[in-house]
């Protein structure tokens, strides 16, 4: 057992305890996959990350560090709030990027660029692994599992960028907040809901994310990977502007804010504030 530097970071918020918490073990060297998974499950958080030196290939390609990302019961090739939270913790602990303003993270999907934008960090959304409309059977199942009519789903698409999100747009933010999903009907599915806010709101969309947990369907407070993929879908389909802010977490008493921006070359940047709530050591 070794004492390792540790932070618990709240992501997609500048106010502690209103975002999505993340456990970050800043030195994961020597830990087995089983040990990482066991600690992740013990934290009872949606995700935990372990920082490692980049691989030889990653270092040659410019990576500053490598991260392994776990959620309860499984390892993820990529996730958004762990990307921003890990980068925040790494910088807070004295990490120095090799390429000026950009930090380069190596993870299961390859290299992910992270830029510093004032108080916010933003990652470049990785390419979608799968896109296009969902199967009719999936849409019907999702409507049933959400307790809504099929025609309440006004648009849908695969939003797979590591996590295999199925993106579904409902008629309004109010409807997104009102759904009570059936964990049996939706078992095994990663579901992302989005609905437009009322005119005059300070955000463009309300987002919710549901995914399989250890025992049942779980909800994530604020989800970077989902917002990244949803932005690529909505912007590409003309359903959202090139710059907008999404709200997520209201259904769980949180107030997450995700900033989505598409630059001139088409890259979608996913950003938000982060704040460290706990700093110290963990014995692993």
Could you give the topology of this structure?
Elements: E1 3-11, E2 20-25, H1 33-43, E3 48-52, H2 56-60, E4 65-71, E5 74-76, H3 80-92, E6 102-107, E7 110-117, E8 120-124, H4 136-146, E9 153-160, E10 164-170, H5 173-178, E11 190-196, E12 205-212, E13 217-220, H6 224-236, E14 243-248, E15 256-262, E16 268-272, E17 274-283
Parallel strand pairs: 2-3, 4-6, 10-11, 12-14
Antiparallel strand pairs: 1-2, 1-17, 3-4, 4-5, 6-7, 7-8, 8-16, 9-10, 11-12, 12-13, 14-15, 15-16
Helix pairs in contact: 3-6
Short description:
This protein is α+β, with helices and mostly antiparallel strands and 284 residues long. The protein folds into 2 domains: 136 residues, Roll (Diaminopimelate Epimerase, Chain A, domain 1); 126 residues, Roll (Diaminopimelate Epimerase, Chain A, domain 1), CATH 3.10.310.
What do you see in this structure?
This protein is α+β, with helices and mostly antiparallel strands and 284 residues long. It has six helices and 17 strands. It has helices at 33-43, 56-60, 80-92, 136-146, 173-178, 224-236; strands at 3-11, 20-25, 48-52, 65-71, 74-76, 102-107, 110-117, 120-124, 153-160, 164-170, 190-196, 205-212, 217-220, 243-248, 256-262, 268-272, 274-283. It has a 17-stranded mixed beta sheet that branches. Helix 3 (80-92) packs across helix 6 (224-236). The longest helix has 13 residues, at 80-92. The model has no long low-confidence stretch (mean pLDDT 95).
> What is the CATH H-level superfamily of the largest domain?
Diaminopimelate Epimerase, Chain A, domain 1
Query: What is the first-to-last residue Cα distance?
Result: 5 Å
Number of self-contained structural domains: 2
Overall SS class: alpha+beta
Shape from CA axes? globular
CATH topology of the largest domain: Diaminopimelate Epimerase, Chain A, domain 1
Helix content: 10-25%
Q: Report the radius of gyration as a whole number of Å.
A: 18 Å
The first-level CATH class name of the largest domain: Alpha Beta
Biggest sheet, open or closed, and with what strands and sense?
A: 17 strands, mixed
Q: Treating each run of at least 4 consecutive H or I residues as one helix, how many helices?
A: 6
**Beta strand %:** 35-45%
Overall mean confidence score, pLDDT: 95
Oligomer: single chain
- The ordered string of helix (H) and strand (E) elements is EEHEHEEHEEEHEEHEEEHEEEE
CATH architecture of the largest domain: Roll
Q: Report the uncertain regions.
A: none
For the secondary structure, the number of strands is 17
């Amino acid at each position: 057992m070794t004492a390792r530097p540790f932070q618990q970071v709240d992501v997609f918020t500048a106010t502690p305890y209103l975002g999505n918490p993340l456990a970050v073990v800043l030195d994961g060297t020597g830990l087995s996959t089983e040990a990482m998974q066991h600690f992740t499950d013990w934290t009872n958080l949606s995700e935990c990350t372990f920082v490692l030196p980049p691989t030889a290939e990653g270092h040659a390609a410019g990576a500053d560090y490598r991260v392994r990302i776990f959620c309860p019961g499984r390892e993820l090739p990529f996730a958004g709030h762990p990307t921003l939270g890990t980068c925040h913790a790494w910088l807070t602990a004295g990490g120095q990027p090799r390429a000026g303003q950009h930090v380069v993270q190596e993870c299961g999907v390859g290299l992910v660029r992270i830029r510093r934008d004032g108080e916010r960090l933003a990652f470049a959304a990785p390419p979608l692994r799968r896109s296009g409309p969902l199967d009719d059977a999936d849409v019907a199942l999702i409507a049933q599992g959400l307790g809504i009519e099929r025609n309440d789903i006004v648009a849908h698409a695969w939003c797979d960028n590591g996590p295999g999100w199925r993106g579904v747009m409902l008629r309004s933010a109010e409807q997104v907040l009102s759904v009570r999903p059936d964990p049996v009907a939706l078992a095994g599915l990663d579901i992302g809901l989005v609905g437009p806010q009322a005119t005059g709101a300070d955000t463009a969309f309300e987002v919710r994310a549901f995914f399989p947990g250890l025992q049942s369907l779980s909800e994530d407070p604020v989800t970077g990977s989902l917002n990244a993929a949803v932005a690529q879908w909505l912007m590409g389909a003309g359903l959202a502007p090139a710059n907008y802010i999404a709200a997520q977490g209201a259904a769980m008493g949180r107030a997450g804010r995700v900033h989505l921006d598409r630059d001139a070359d088409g890259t979608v940047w996913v950003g938000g504030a982060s704040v460290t709530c706990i700093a110290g050591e963990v014995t692993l």
